[in-house]
């Protein structure tokens, strides 16, 4: 059996004693490009935030390659929802990407020439090199998302978590992002994406998890992505044409 | 300038810089009002500290007051976490209560000492040169200078050491957590620095000016730069400038020093708000007007491109076809002429080759959903902007 990148056991997370995730057991194999799908309020972002230690679960445990997250930080990169930060913050695209290098630097140490070079390479990869000096509020939604992706790329991680990277981006950016994610998978990385567009799941991803407060199903898209699971997750009759 | 005046300038400038640094981060974290809360609620801390040490010059006083400052922040957060009231309400609940307790304590037990409400609110900058530090008969300078100098030094050391962490946790606390930096530690570190600075500045400039020195320079700098380091430098500069200019204004008017400094801070913000090159009020109005006439111009050129029929291109009837008022049509026509986009022959308007080229490109961008690029094109084609 393939290596397990992320193993979640009996995870329950609550906001003000109201559970938003109930008893989740989930294993994410190494090297998959996985979508997490589910209706609004299903706990998709919460699941990612709990894996990353941003939220404290009331029960259960998470391990990354067999060890707790705290020991594996350097192997994990995170792209939060675009709306989670203040884009009017006085900083440039390049500076935001440099932030991705802070984790490996640790406390107090400053980023130097090496970090800057990495950040520039990442900006080039997402096609944003010419915008490196641009203040971040002067970027379009799609460009901001690319900057976030570049910031994750410089983390040089083994596992990437992305919270709705396609939200509010134009078609060109969506294609650019998914191509980079596919490249990451080819390089053996594990990529986990909170995703909303059910139509594109079979085209973009090879692995999927259905989530609605509880885990409904998880596995290869070819096997488990069907109307049955969609109906169980969204509670209404779903008909999607799955292109195999 | 007398020696005392020089010392006042120095103290005021150091206070201004020491306030501008935490103030910049408070403004960026949308926590400006917290500084108001801290500056008021440290009063009971000062009084209690005085009861325990029986010495107004004790450094323990600063510590006690700073702890009350951090306690204020904690109380505000706890009340807010109940979700029963919002943050601003929580702030409005906490600090008046703490401040009043301080006022009552002073009135009841400390009437005969140098701790009165006037001094608390407005400070006594003019008297700071008289309260001096001596080391075996040698005059080492005003006490305030030593206090605020040490606080500024501490603030600068922390700023240089943790600049990266401060920036990251202010911009994206989620990423900071996932990378292993504790935004909570940074948060309370910043609150502690803000509290200590407030206490240190208190003596010299009072509670109201402390708030003004923390918020107004940072808010002005925010409108002028898109770089955090420059924002820190600019807000320090605005703080120092207002402090010194305010001092001379007070001198000239024979008015309150703290009041004049705060007024200067307000004036500086007003000027920046009106005239800032990119975000200022006039810049925005000008840009909107320019935008409006340029969009009209492009619409007009596209109309010419789309219609070869003479009646659609007649100067006199243009406004009817595009449904514009006469004045607007005339402005746009003139702008197009000035930019060599059109020619008028026998009252019929036609595009020049340059106009043709421009509209062809514009149409292409519109069709491919890249309207943003039209903005860049304007630089190449327009001799005169709208």
Automatic annotation (TrEMBL), chain A:
Record key words, sorted: ATP-binding, Nucleotide-binding, Transport
Domain of life per record: Bacteria
Molecular-function annotations in GO: ATP binding; ATP hydrolysis activity
Short name of any one Pfam family annotated for the protein: ABC_tran
Domain ABC transporter: 6-238
Similarity comment text for this entry: Belongs to the ABC transporter superfamily.
PANTHER family, sorted: IRON TRANSPORT SYSTEM ATP-BINDING PROTEIN HI_0361-RELATED, METAL TRANSPORT SYSTEM ATP-BINDING PROTEIN TM_0124-RELATED
Name the UniProt record assigns to this protein: Metal ABC transporter ATP-binding protein
From TrEMBL, chain B:
UniProt membrane topology term: Multi-pass membrane protein
Transmembrane segments: 6-28, 37-54, 60-77, 89-110, 144-163, 175-198, 204-224, 231-250, 262-286
Pfam families: ABC-3
Keyword Transmembrane helix assigned: yes
CC annotations in GO: ATP-binding cassette (ABC) transporter complex
Gene Ontology BP, a term: transmembrane transport
Alphabetized SUPFAM superfamilies for the sequence: ABC transporter involved in vitamin B12 uptake, BtuC
Subcellular location: Cell membrane
Keyword Signal: no
Keywords associated with the record: Cell membrane, Membrane, Transmembrane, Transmembrane helix, Transport
InterPro entries: ABC_BtuC-like, ABC_TroCD
UniProt superkingdom: Bacteria
Annotated family: Belongs to the ABC-3 integral membrane protein family.
Name of the protein described by the UniProt record: Metal ABC transporter permease
UniProt organism field: Brumimicrobium aurantiacum
